[in-house]
């Protein structure tokens, strides 16, 4: 048996011939479908692959995609960005966040704007960078504005773990972590929702395991295939979903088995559990979803920037422009070009609504690759 | 944002609990805090996400996927050949005198 090379892990899952192979398999199988099926890719990473590799054009008429809420940057409500903005203006504060947050506008502007007005805002690659910044600036308070789904939450927990173990006095957290199953449930509870099956996020599942989706086929009658991010992964997963429909099955299957197990990374889950607990979260475009976010447990209040700076943080909720139809896009009721300001008033450089905000948002992906459609 | 790149472990520093990984020729260090002690070895394929190794890629499972893809290609080749033969059988010009 041949052994695996690093190169295979890239090229093997992007092979254009294999993509064409699956195109034929899907086309043949789809003829046996009795109706159109609508697949939601929950995660923006998949939206990106689908648009970048022109996967929509490779699929027969009766297989459609609904682009999901899966980007933690896109779903960040303006009032949370305003929190970051206000925190960055406090005396002796260095606000640190991941690079993805750089351009997202709140009601006063983005964090980039805050920086150009003199705030010390730093965009980093890893939460671990906070440790270095804190050591170099002992007279400043470093606030980590933490974002991300299940994939990214354990890394924030690991940062806090180090802060506590090494007794670092000047790092605080502002948590904006969210979880995937709750919005999936919220979407399919809406009667107007047209979703028939889900493409499950790759790396969320690496951490949480495939078990978090078991309820969807079982209780909601929606098949789920956990898929990798490469184009061959996505084509194979679509093929698996189509086969479930023609064989009358409704199951949870894992295409991305090279990295996903049923249980996931238990150590990472335990780390998250130790420090964080479920809280309600208001999603940009989707509204309030109970228990869909993570907050610090009360015993770690002294690391909680939201508690410590409570007096200065704005409390009011801010919605997107009323012309924005992101909510409907996420439910599959509309697609981005149907928005009256798509590509005109709303562009990646001046996003009006959530789906245009990060490169993984549905409107942004359509804007970038739209000429292919 | 959750994208994460397959990398290969080059060395491990148990003192600092970090590994050095190779991502297509680029070497970086990555935290091992999220992995069970001793579960990552030199030569393992791992997924790297914002400075941490978040799990291992199962070599057998990856090879299995690649084998399935090869089979699909071969099957299609075979079908295409059969189709060509069939097309040949039906060649309209053959009916001409
Ligand atoms: S941040 Fe992660 S889960 Fe979200 S869209 Fe990007 S890849 Fe998917
Ligand atoms: S184009 Fe902009 S305003 Fe319209 S739905 Fe998309 S994000 Fe919202």
Walkthrough of the structure:
Chain A: GO terms for molecular function: 4 iron, 4 sulfur cluster binding; carbon monoxide binding; iron ion binding. Chain A has helices at residues 6-11, 16-30, 44-52, 55-58, 78-88, 111-116, 129-136, 153-165, 181-189, 202-208, 215-220, 231-246, 266-275, 305-308, 326-331, 362-369, and strands at 37-43, 63-70, 93-98, 120-124, 141-148, 171-178, 197-200, 224-226, 252-254, 276-283, 287-296. Chain A is α/β, with parallel strands linked by helices and 373 residues long. Chain A has 2 domains: 36-320, HypD, alpha/beta domain 2 (Rossmann fold); 325-367, no CATH class. In chain A, strand 10 (276-283) and strand 11 form a beta hairpin. The longest helix of chain A has 16 residues, at 231-246. Chain B is rod-shaped, with a radius of gyration of 24 Å. Chain B is built from 1 helix and 5 strands, in the order βββββα. Chain B has a 5-stranded antiparallel sheet, with no helix packed on it. The termini of chain B are far apart. In chain B, a hairpin with a 4-residue loop joins strand 1 and strand 2 (18-23). In chain B, 32% of the residues lie in helices and 32% in strands. Chain B folds into 2 domains: 1-56, SH3 type barrels (Roll); 58-90. Chain B has one helix spanning 59-89, and strands at residues 5-13, 18-23, 26-31, 45-49, 52-56. Residues 324-326, 329, 336, 339, 341-342, 346, 352-353, 355-356, 363 of chain A line the site of one iron/sulfur cluster.
